[in-house]
Design goal:
single chain, minor pseudopilin epsh fold, 3-stranded antiparallel sheet, 8 helices
Length: 205
Amino acid sequence: MKEFQTPDLPYAYDALEPYIDEATMRVHHDKHHVAYTNNFNKALSQHPELNYENAEDILQDLDKLPEDIKLAVKNHGGGHVHHNIFWQIMGPADKNQLPSGELLMAINSTFGSFEAFKEQFEQVAMTVFGAGWAWLSLDKNKKLIIEKTPNQDSPYSLGHNPVMGIDVWEHAYYLKYQNRRLEFVQNFWSVINWQAVGQKYLDNK
Ligand code: MN3
């Protein structure tokens, strides 16, 4: 069985300041993400007969996995994959762009406008109760949807392909924002790398 790695951040720990602070990025990436990856590998090591190249495929096949590791894979495999996406779809605010091309057209035709999409996405992110994520995903019909998942439950396990998402676990914002999740969600728009999101959309549509 392949051993999964926690990828390095594609930018410096302080690159998302002032919207996401360096201290949060360090503990979030180096502690939380690394722990998810380690525990994911630990669970998989109990079933060396499983032979997957991509972690996303494992989440997609969650229901087919051996019962004794299903929960650990759901939690830690989800955490591993979701944080991979999260780091990748963010970037320094000074490189911030807006969605363009095919992704923008799909957002406009699905949600009415980029502004309307933002409003709906924020609302979904704000109504995640407790820990979880809000996602812009492609559903089974390759249609854009906004969805939320509790804990580390994955859109992949629903047959969806996430193209962008926000971690609203308290560990993602509490050091800087304490209980002010809305402020964190609103500032998230300033650090999205729309070029990366647009590419994920093209790769999955
Ligand atoms: Mn997290």
